[in-house]
Amino acid sequence: MKIDILAIGAHPDDVELSCAGTLAKEIAHGKQVAILDLTQGELGTRGTAEIRAKEAKKAADILGATARYNLNFADGFFENNKAHQLQLAAYIRLLKPNMVLCNAVEDRHPDHGRAAALVLESCFLSGLQQVKTTHKGQSQDAWRPKQVYHYIQWNDAQPDFVVDISAYIDTKLEAVNAYGSQFFNPKTAAPETPISSQNFLDSVRYRTANLGRLIGVAHAEGFTAARLLAVDRINDLM
């Protein structure tokens, strides 16, 4: 399989909360997009891993993703080490993305920053011929994505660039709301969490609105870059 964009999240719903509008826009323009969750989010206070898996599939279908995978790393305890790097590199080589979108470099949840470092190093290692990986018993060729960008999450990091998602905000919110076990639901008796309030759900929209305001559009999503950004012509910048 050859895809254009691979969106990676430490937990199911990281991608939807942070870059779903961007993915929906690229899919609408004909790009092949896959989503890879590192964990099942099994340490979440609300819901179960099984429920989250169903919600993740529903969200991927809403976005129109080509495929969604889960590496089943240990939520809260996975490490940026050789074993995890090789497992992730095998999927990067399987899917051959030109671009990878992944967790914020620094964020409230320690899994997010750790996932960012793991993804960045795995993308580099997957491009080395002498790093050997297999998938279903078959040896894999080296592959390195051309671009790796980190989406902004809980912390309001200063983005290096933003993407206008004004026409896709409703799709983003629909994908977020697929995670009914995690977010605001006045009918549930589940314990309250930092992301289960109406305020948090509202913040998904007003944070995109604020980024959009800064560039003169209705809604936008922000990203940081692991290396210097380049354009062919200065007129490529909005």
Task: Provide a short characterization of the protein structure.
The protein has 238 residues and is α/β, with parallel strands linked by helices. It has helices at residues 14-28, 49-63, 82-95, 110-125, 169-177, 198-215, and strands at residues 5-9, 33-39, 67-73, 99-102, 134-135, 138-139, 147-151, 161-164, 220-225. It is globular, with a radius of gyration of 17 Å.
What does this structure look like?
The protein is α/β, with parallel strands linked by helices and 238 residues long. The chain has one domain (5-236): LmbE-like (Rossmann fold), CATH 3.40.50.10320. Helix content is 37%, strand content 18%. The protein has helices at 14-28, 49-63, 82-95, 110-125, 169-177, 198-215, and strands spanning 5-9, 33-39, 67-73, 99-102, 134-135, 138-139, 147-151, 161-164, 220-225. The strands form 2 sheets. It has a 7-stranded mixed sheet with strand order 3-2-1-4-7-9-8, with helices on both faces. Strands 5-6 form a two-stranded antiparallel ribbon. Helix 2 (49-63) links the parallel strand 2 (33-39) and strand 3. The two termini are 33 Å apart.
